[in-house]
Amino acid sequence: MTRAEEFEELRPLLFSIAYRILGSVSEAEDAVQETWLRYQTSPAEPVSAKSFLAAVVTRIAIDVLRSARVRREEYVGPWFPEPLLADPYQDPERSAELADSLSMAALLLLERLSPLERAVFVLREVFGFGFGEVASAVGRSEAACRQLAARARRHMDAGRPRFEADRREREELAERFFDAFREGDVEGLRALLAADVHLVADSGGKAPQWGTGVFGAENVVRVIATLAPLFARIGGVVEPHQMNGQPGAIFRDRDGKVVNTWTLDVLDGQVQAIRTVLNPDKLEHVGPVADAWATLREATRARRPAD
């Protein structure tokens, strides 16, 4: 097998490592490409291409994350990972096995870790690399990596919900939610929302923003009940789609351009959180991006005759 063939075979793994460390599709793709360039020009023949490439992509991702942390401190409003529409793994069993570590909730928990803790957790806990391989990748001793892994596990376990819904339950509830959204079924929506549900948007200051978020079932229902008919009136389409291994949707304008994405956190038979990404910079990989401000203005105009 040639180096190019080995690399292509391992590309899904490399992207998956980089995305979980960085929370960015574009930066993960860049890290994978840089890994290929280094592999292509490396004179040494590694004993294990998998270990070598995983180590290279991890080091690149750690460096990128360290500089990204500075930018995120200056980010306007809440920061969410870039939505991932499709798991790079072609094997459905492998995709299902890794889905929970792709969720928005899990990636936001990873944000609480230091870059080294995050990398060690991803390599060890998500992908099952041995501590020797992990140590080589992050440039620390095995003992230090065991400590980093233990600390990361504690942080992750403390933030995870105690009872998680199974995939089928999440999908069925999401289907009912988006049906109710399209039909303007206020009571149907209210029945699906947890009392303390929150609707939070990541606009990065580049799209309309709901302040720090909308909190509580009644407030969220009120927002959705206002938004849904106006969006439909201007030709908007809600396209249910898996997002980061969770139920979600892509909102498109009448021309098919992406306005935003929604991701639902489902737990105990109810929607606990709705996370929407509006920042156009984070939607370019989804498709041509709409002008969210123009969409809002059009929706506002469409509302006036009914007032």
What does this protein structure show overall?
The protein has 307 residues and is α+β, with helices and mostly antiparallel strands. It has 2 domains: 3-79 and 112-159, Butyryl-CoA Dehydrogenase, subunit A, domain 3 (Up-down Bundle), CATH 1.20.140; 167-306, Nuclear Transport Factor 2, Chain: A (Roll), CATH 3.10.450. Helix content is 54%, strand content 14%. It has 12 helices and 6 strands. It has helices at residues 3-22, 25-41, 49-73, 92-98, 104-110, 115-126, 131-138, 142-159, 167-183, 186-192, 217-233, 292-303, and strands at 193-202, 214-215, 237-243, 246-252, 258-267, 270-277. Strands 2-1-6-5-4-3 form a 6-stranded mixed sheet. Helix 1 (3-22) runs antiparallel to helix 2, helix 3 (49-73) packs antiparallel against helix 6 and helix 3 crosses helix 7. The mean pLDDT is 91.
Number of strands: 6
Widest beta sheet: strand line-up? 2-1-6-5-4-3
CATH class of the largest domain: Alpha Beta
The assigned CATH architecture of the largest domain is Roll
Proportion of residues in helical segments: 40-55%
Structural class: alpha+beta
Q: Compute the gyration radius: what is it? A: 21 Å
Under CATH, the topology of the largest domain is which? Nuclear Transport Factor 2, Chain: A
Give, in order, the helices and strands.
HHHHHHHHHHEEHEEEEH
> Helix count?
12
Major sheet = 6 strands, mixed
